[in-house]
Specification:
two-stranded antiparallel ribbon; about 120 residues; Trna Endonuclease, Chain: A, domain 1; 3 helices; alpha+beta
Length: about 120
Amino acid sequence: MTENELSNKIIGLAIEVHNALGPGLLESAYKECLFYNIKQAGLFVVKEKPMPLIFNEVKLDCGYRLDLLVENKLVIEIKSVEELNDIHLAQILTYLKLGDFRLGLLINFNVLRLKDGIRRVVNKL
């Protein structure tokens, strides 16, 4: 499955979660529910995947963690905030670059319609 096909599938699963829970919950609740939905769909998903930083050829554990990594190629960063801003975009771009991934989804569940809270983010390798 390509990154684009995968992202379309994940967006559908995220919409299911949002329809069931609505806005207003903590990020952790949405993360757990989406993680469960992705696993139930038969996809390989890792939660809270450590993302080391390499500086001067030394691997440093700086506490970076991907919210979800699907099929070892799609990064999902989950938020529950009033609105997405540039720092959220910078965060997922950093994860894409550190992990050499091409595509990420930045999903803010704290919106009335989930389609208004989704941003596809592409790393131009």
